[in-house]
UniProtKB/TrEMBL annotation:
Residues 19-224 form the DUF7788 domain. InterPro entries: DUF7788 (IPR056690), UCP015417_vWA (IPR011205), vWFA_dom_sf (IPR036465). This is DUF7788 domain-containing protein. It comes from the Eukaryota.
């Protein structure tokens, strides 16, 4: 099969199409804990109504953790900070919980959210089984739901792994299809995520084995491109001018 030729952007990752998985374990003390709680609450309040005011717990058996709509921000912070957590998790199970909601509510493909994992990646096992097995399982699950709901596009939404402490741990290789890794926390990185610039998909043309040409979605934002987008932010224009003038 020939190398795909990218043609146009199809959609962007935006907070209103995210489901947060929040790691509130002891290793998240300090800024990472503040960020995971703030982002978890914030995303849960603006995401699709079928997932609103809920986050996924970060433990061996992920489950939905509900934040009541009538709660004050103080109540939500206290509740999420005390949510269950474990030393490992199963991202495939978490993705299946998302698919269960999608199937129950008969959502359209465009309302299928991405899973964003907010953690410092300091756990003994990121995936039960290899990442290849995990993503293969997810593809099979999404295809089943897509067939049942009549979706034309059965490609899984991405999983975004945001390492809020920028430690050395990472659950998948940087080039893993269907995954995006972000590291550390900064205003520019937060802006990228909130503006929907952390991940893009593009339409590609590829020649199949039988010689036919078929469109497919290809995720093109890898670690290097995330860094480039951050450096292209207008906040750095003055520094760029200083460098070119020197």
């Amino acid at each position: 099969m020939s190398k795909p030729r990218l043609r146009r952007k199809a959609w962007s990752l935006i907070p209103t199409k995210m489901v947060p998985m929040c790691d509130v374990s002891g290793s998240m003390y300090g800024t990472p804990m503040e960020v995971v709680i703030a982002l978890g609450i914030g995303i849960s309040e603006i995401t699709h109504e079928s997932f609103r005011n809920t986050v996924l717990t970060f433990d061996a058996t992920p489950q939905w953790f509900r934040l009541e709509e009538g709660d004050t921000i103080v109540d939500k912070v206290r509740k999420l900070g005390a949510a269950p957590w474990g030393m490992n998790t199963d991202f495939a199970k978490a993705y299946n919980l998302v698919l269960d909601v999608v199937e129950t509510n008969k959502l359209k493909r465009e309302n299928m959210p991405c899973l964003i994992v907010l953690s410092d990646m300091q756990f003994d096992q990121a995936c039960i089984g290899s990442p290849i097995t995990m993503f293969k399982h997810i593809k099979i699950s999404v295809k089943r739901v897509a067939n049942k709901l009549g979706w034309e596009d059965d490609a899984p939404s991405a999983i975004v792994f945001w390492n809020l402490r920028n430690t050395g741990g990472h659950p998948v290789d940087k080039d893993a299809e269907g995954a995006v890794m972000l590291g550390g926390f900064s205003p520019s990185l937060l802006k990228m995520v909130m503006n929907g610039e952390a991940l893009n998909e593009e339409e590609a043309e590829g020649v199949q084995k039988d010689g036919t040409v078929k469109d497919k979605k290809v995720r093109v934002t890898l670690l290097e491109q995330v860094v480039k987008k951050m450096l292209d932010d207008s906040v750095y224009d003055r520094q760029k001018f200083s460098c070119t003038s020197s």
